[in-house]
Design goal:
The protein has one domain: TIM Barrel. Helix content is 49%, strand content 16%. It is built from eleven helices and eight strands. The chain binds erythose-4-phosphate.
Length: 230
């Protein structure tokens, strides 16, 4: 049995960790774009519900603001219906990625959407074997929900690490997208694991900027500057 060491990544992997914003809130997406940190967006039905907007109006706006991939979730449960819905979502804009749950029907749909050149984000994943099947189905992204595992006393990040090893062992192109992150430590752990993408809420991204010593250091230098003759 191979040890759980990270293998040398295949050359096809883009060695730059992307930050996706996990929201459907236009103001947040615009602000993160202004900060120059917006590599993509992941939405889900709960995010959309919170905005109070109609998907038909909201989705094209998000896709127009974000230059990178935008995950829009299919809510159908049966393969034919997911494929149908996925095609409609993909027609909204070139940067749409269809989010599909990691079920038997979902993975049938992922294979078909993938064969049609439609990108997919396989979501609500909680086991490395689900991730293996998602990769075999041709998923563009796999989204392990690490924070939700932590909240039932399972180590979420261990799941991400195992997926990284499996994908690297076999050179799967499917990108590891760490999701349901709850705090900056999840982001740090995902980066140390070698996740291709981490998707996070706006507040967590803002926390990544913060360090009390940075504030203290700036304050100290500004006070010193007051003593400098002008
Ligand atoms: C990811 O794509 C999901 O939208 C998200 O991370 C789900 O996380 P939650 O547990 O915060 O709902």
């Amino acid at each position: 049995m191979k040890s759980l060491q990270r293998q040398t990544p295949p050359l096809t992997i883009e060695l730059h960790m992307k930050i996706f914003l996990d929201t459907a809130d236009i103001a947040q997406i615009e602000e993160v774009k202004r900060l120059g940190m917006l590599d993509g967006v992941t939405t889900n039905p709960a995010h959309v519900a919170r905005t109070g907007a109609r998907p038909a109006e909201l989705y094209p706006r998000i896709c127009a603001i974000c230059d990178g991939p935008v995950s829009l979730e299919a809510i159908s449960l049966e393969a034919d219906a997911i494929v149908e819905e996925g095609r409609k979502l993909a027609a909204i804009a070139d940067n749409v990625v269809v989010k599909v749950p990691v079920t038997r029907e979902g993975l049938i749909a992922v294979r078909r959407l993938s064969d049609e050149g439609i990108r997919t984000n396989v979501t609500v994943a909680y086991s490395p074997t689900q991730a293996l099947l998602a990769a075999k189905a041709g998923a563009t992204y796999i989204s392990p929900f690490v924070g939700r595992l932590d909240s039932i006393a399972h180590e979420g990040q261990e799941l991400a690490r195992q997926i990284r090893v499996i994908y690297d062992n076999y050179g799967f192109d499917t990108q590891l997208l760490v999701a349901a992150v709850r705090h900056p430590m999840h982001v740090l752990e995902a980066a140390l694991t070698g996740a291709d993408v981490v998707t996070m809420a706006f507040d967590i991204l803002m926390q990544l900027y913060e360090h009390p010593l940075t504030d203290q250091g700036i304050d100290m230098f500004l006070k010193a500057w007051d003593q400098v003759p002008q």
